[in-house]
Structure formats: C-alpha cells, structure tokens
Amino acid sequence: MERTIKIFLVEDDAALAGEIIQFLEKWGFLAEAAEQFDAIEREARRYRPHLILMDVNLPCYDGFYWCRRIRESSDVPVVFISSRSEDADQIMAIAQGGDDYVEKPFRLELLKAKIDAVLRRTYEYRVRERIALGRDGSFERETQSLFVRDVEVELTRSERKILAKLLEKRPHVVTREALMMELWGMDEFISDQALTTMISRLRNKLRECLGEDTIGTKKGQGYFIA
User: Fold this and answer.
1) What is 6-123's CATH number?
2) Which helix (H) or strand (E) element contains residue 100?
3) From 45, 107, 133, 220, which residue has the greatest number of CB atoms within 10 Å?
4) Is 28 helix (H, G, I), strand (E, B) or coil?
5) CA dihedral 16, 21, 22, 28 (to 10 degrees)
6) Using an 8 Å Cβ cutoff, are 133 and 155 in contact?
7) In whole angstroms, how large is the CA radius of gyration of the chain?
8) Model pTM score
9) Domain residues of the chain, as ranges?
10) What architecture is the 153-225 domain classified under in CATH?
11) Nearest to residue 130, comparing CAs of 112, 156, 114?
12) What is the DSSP string of 132-200?
C-alpha cells in the first residue's frame, strides 16, 4: 500500500493558499501551508514533505533563498509558483535547486499535472489518485479502495462500485437507475430493494469509520456525496 503524499505549501496569499490546500486534499494529498515565513526551512524539516510548492515573492526572504537553504540539507523536490514570468526568474529557480516552475495565474489542474510529473521523476513510481473523503478518509480511484488514516477499510465489491460512482459524479446526484446499471453484470441480479440495502450498509459503514454522514439522499432522485 502506498503512503499518502505530503505537500508543503509556501504561499503568503491566504486565500490562494486555502484554495490550493483544499484542491490538493480532494485529490488525496496531505497538504499543509507555511505559517512562519521567517522559518520556512525549519517548518519544512518538521513536516518532512514529499514535495514543496514555493512562491517566489514572500515576506522576510524570497522563495529562491528558502530553496537554497532547503537544498543544503534536503533533496525534496521544489516546484515554484510565481507571478514573475521573466526568463531570468525561471533560470534563477532552477539554479537554486527548483524542479519546475508554474506561472500565476494557473489552473489547478495544471498544477496537479506538474506535481504528478515531478513526483514520478523523483520517486520513480506512478502516483495513484486519491480523493479526500471526510476529515481522515481517502478513496483510491485505481483500486477502488477506501482508507482511513492510511488503514484500508474492508468494502464489498458492490460497495466499492457504488462509492466510486458517487465520488466520480460528486457533488451531483447519481440516480438509482445509474447505480443499478453500474452494478449490472455482477454475479447476482440487483433489485431495487437490494440497492437500498447496499446503500444503507455502505452509509452505516462510512459513518462508523469516518465519524460523519457521507452519503446524502435526494428524495425521488438518488444519492450524492457533497
């Protein structure tokens, strides 16, 4: 089982930092934002991330300085995110030990693609996509596996398919008919009552392991995960 990837974000724009953290967590990463901009190296050493996202324009010292300091004791990959688009800035980023450079404003999907590429190059494995679920849970798309604090939760084949479909369409409603079609072709016939029972069992299981209600019901339509 792969451990969850930890990303350390160094960004002094609180609104942007919050948006990036939320996006990364939805993809199953563990993400933490810097708090002390005069002690970035110390915070990074404490968090021990697999990758650092580093802004260039920062209070106290710029991102180039902190990347150089981090490189004195660590080879952790650093991806710069900056509104500075001059070639000289990108050359400086690489010269100070950066692994990639993303210009602001950027689409979050592009940022994720850059992160995945750097992780592949650095750690020589394919990043498995995990989707955040509740405070401590994540769902791995490829294997349709549910984890709570990196411990796998036992799910039946039907429960895996239902959860995967609900997360694929999140936050939209998935009709009962669509879920039954998703389960079609399994060894047993899925009746309307059988689907109700499966949803109930899955809902109870998620409530027990995540500590909160996860699957919502849209009366007369179907189910959803917010």
Assistant:
1) 3.40.50.2300
2) strand 100-103
3) 133
4) coil
5) 150
6) no
7) 21
8) 0.60
9) 6-123, 153-225
10) Orthogonal Bundle (1.10)
11) 112
12) EETTTEEEETTTTEEEETTEEEP--HHHHHHHHHHHHHTTS-EEHHHHHHHHTTSSS---HHHHHHHHH
